[in-house]
Every structure is written in structure tokens, then in C-alpha cells.
Amino acid sequence: MKRKKIWVLGAVFCTALQLLSCGKKQTAGEEKIHVGVTYYNQSDTFLNQLIACFRESLEEMEGEDSQITLTVRDAAGSQRTQDDQVKELLDAGSNVLCVNLVDRADPSEIIDLARESGVPIIFFNREPVAGDMMQWDGLYYVGADAKQSGVMQGELAAEAIKENGSIDRNKDGKIQYVVLEGEPGHQDAIIRTENAVDTLKANGIALEKLECGIANWNRAQAQNRMMQMVSQYQNKIELVLANNDDMALGASDAYEKLNYTESVLPVIFGIDGTDVGLLAVAEEKLSGTVYNDKEGQAQAMARLSLALVSGRGMEEIEFENDRYVYLNYSKITMDNIGDYLKQDEE
Ligand code: GAL
Ligand code: CA
């Protein structure tokens, strides 16, 4: 008799639990997350890989309680086009937006559109200026700290120069260097350059700057700029600091095209750790790179997207200044490249 009572009680308890979980499932089951993404240019190697990671993260998070759709638009370098895309994404029912601004100083139109629809925006990779982030409390940013990547690139170069006296090829006690810089006005261009150079100096490396060429993150443009610099400075260039891997590879392409032998090649450093960048480190075309954690950024964007739509899980996200998420960079050389190549295969 006693047993039966316990059983009955148990059954009631279970049903109550079931009801509870059922209730939860019902609301959650109706949860449809429509993520609308627009990014500045589909020719960008790092961003294409970041968006591929984002797609994977969302797929992993899709469960019984959430249905996720993802729409991605390429703004092809036009802010006007991107503004229209945001309108279109909102009209199509996006309930969270992920925006990689074309012009990081011009987000007002997009912010107004989103605010009118009550749809939050996660800006990523191209950081809006602080004042614009204050325009509305439905704005977030996911990215990385530009300064950290510049410091790490400087440290990598300083370590290499201290270890290998032959980098100072003309033995004048100074390192003749050139910079390949990303888009003007991008937080990852000027800040990376400044911090890489300052870090080299802080490490006691005497430097002589030969030139700084803008190549807009682009491999072909960097190759062109580098060809010009090599024709001007001949064998003088001992170090190339590139704001990203694609431009570092452009520099390496230039030397290959000019048939320069290894003994007159400068050391070249990139930033990103894209697939091609990692391969180039493994093949010793690049002396090192700094990992721009696309998996971490994608994961943070996916978690934040879900949390913003469902209202659950916000407390698990580590924000800085309330609405910013920054993922750490890390240094890559020949010594630890294996860890990253493996990580990429997984
Ligand atoms: C940087 C990245 C570059 C480029 C740029 C685009 O963070 O290092 O390769 O993708 O973003 O905004
Ligand atoms: Ca020298």
C-alpha cells in the first residue's frame, strides 16, 4: 500500500515535471531565430572564414527548442548597399542582426532601422566608434583588441631578430622595415602598426622605417605595393610587418615573382592565422602570425544571437563595458604551428 502511494506520488511529480518541461518546450519550441548578417566585402579571406565558423556554431546550437535560419549578404564595399540590405533583412523577419560595417564611422542609418523594429544588432570585426555604440542599448560588439595583436606581432618579430643575427643583413645594427597596412580608418590597421613598432623598440630593437604602403587587407594589392618597394629598396628590406596574413602573403608573392633567392628575403609577419596564413607559417614563407580567434568570435556571436532572441543565457556571456565581447589573440610560429593546424582540421 505504502509502495503504491509512493508510486502514485512519484507519478504525480513526474507529470508535474513533464508539464513544466512541456510548458517550457512549447514556448521554446516556438522560438525561431532568424539571424541576418551583412558583411563589408566577400573578397575578405578572414571574414569568409569567420562567417563559415559562425554558420557552424549556429548549427551546433540548433536544438529541439530553437530553430535557426541564417541569411548572409555581401555589401560589396558600399555602405549604401549595406543600409538597404539591413532594411531587406528586417523586412524578411530577421530578429537579430549581425553587422560587419562597411564604414565603421557611419552606422546611424542601420541603428535607426534596427531600433524602429526593436531588433538588436551585434556589430562584429569592424568596431563602431564608442559614441555610436551609445545610440541605443540594443547594440553589441564582438571582436578582438587591436592593440593586443600589434603587441604580439612586435614581440614575435623582436624574438626572431634577437635569436637570429642574420636578419640584420647589412649588419648596421638597425632593422630596415616596411609596413603593409590595412584600410585607412580601420581599428586594426593603424593600432596594429603602432603597437608592433613600439613593442619592437621597447624590446631594444633599433629600427629604420623605409616605407608604409596601404594595401587594404588585400593580397594582390600588397603584392603590387611590395613589388614597388623592392624595386625601390632592392635588398635593403629586412623586415615586413603586415597588418594581416593576406598582405603578408602578398609580400611573399612579390619576392617569389621577382625570383629572389632565400638569402635576400626579409622576415615577414602577418596577423589572422587564416588557413593560407597557417600553411605559409608551416612552409616558412611567413616567420610568424598572430591568431585572430575566429572560432571564439563566431561562438560568441552565436551565443549572443540566441540569448538576445530567447532572453536566456545573457548572464553566461562575459561582457566588457556591458556590451563588448573581446576574444584574445595568440602568437603562432613554427614552434607551435602544429596546434593550430590540428585545431583547424577538427
Ligand atoms: C581584420 C583582419 C583582416 C580583415 C579585416 C576586415 O581583423 O585581420 O584580415 O579581415 O579585419 O575588417
Ligand atoms: Ca640592417
Give structural notes.
There is one protein chain. With 346 residues, the protein is of the alpha/beta class. It contains twelve helices and twelve strands. The strands form three sheets. Strands 2-1-3-4-5-11 form a six-stranded parallel β-sheet, sandwiched between helices. Strand 3, helix 4 and strand 4 (121-124) form a beta-alpha-beta unit. Helix 2 packs across helix 11 (294-310) and helix 3 runs parallel beside helix 4 (108-117). The chain binds beta-D-galactopyranose (GAL) and calcium ion. Residues 168, 170, 172, 174-176, 238 line the site of calcium ion.
CATH topology of the largest domain: Rossmann fold
Given helix and strand content, the structural type is alpha/beta
* Chain-averaged pLDDT: 92
Q: Identify the CATH architecture of the largest domain.
A: 3-Layer(aba) Sandwich
Question: How many domains would you count in the coordinates?
Answer: 2
Radius of gyration in whole Å, from Cα?
A: 25 Å
Describe the structure using short key phrases:
346 residues, alpha/beta, Rossmann fold, 2 domains, 6-stranded parallel beta sheet, 4-stranded parallel beta sheet, 49% helix, disordered N terminus, binds beta-D-galactopyranose, binds calcium ion
Short note summarizing the structure:
The protein has 346 residues and is of the alpha/beta class.
